[in-house]
Automatic annotation (TrEMBL):
Domain of life: Bacteria
InterPro entries, sorted: Clp_N_dom_sf (IPR036628)
Taxonomic lineage: Bacteria, Bacillati, Actinomycetota, Actinomycetes, Pseudonocardiales
Protein name: Clp R domain-containing protein
UniProt source species: uncultured Actinomycetospora sp
Amino acid sequence: MRLATRQTARLTRVFLLADQEAARDDAARVGTAHLLLALVRDEHEHGGRLADRVDVGEVRAEVASRPVRTGGTGRRAWTPAAVAAVDVALRAAARAGGEPVVGVRHLLLGVLADEADDAAAVLRALDVDVADLVAGALADLGADVAVLR
């Protein structure tokens, strides 16, 4: 499945927001923390579950406190972890059956799939229960943890 033909308009916007956040950090590449921050921004505008648990400013401050590689100009590449997160999102949508559409919940699952990665670390630093967020996203999709494999 090709992502470009299956992503929602909100997901497209989240990708643009993630690039903006990487630019704000002067980061050379878009990472999972930037994707997380973009998801939080999107959720605050749409009243989503993530918005109830985290504040955009707190996430931005935590992301900014982490070391970044500078020097990025123009279009930014994505870190391997960010690419892997999108791959998890694609697989989760594909396992849903029918004509899969990849949305923000799928991306949230992808971003949080690796507990050792930056996005999960940012949330843990803010005392957010990552497992609870994953469970909520799965419930929103009517899926179970098997979609993450």
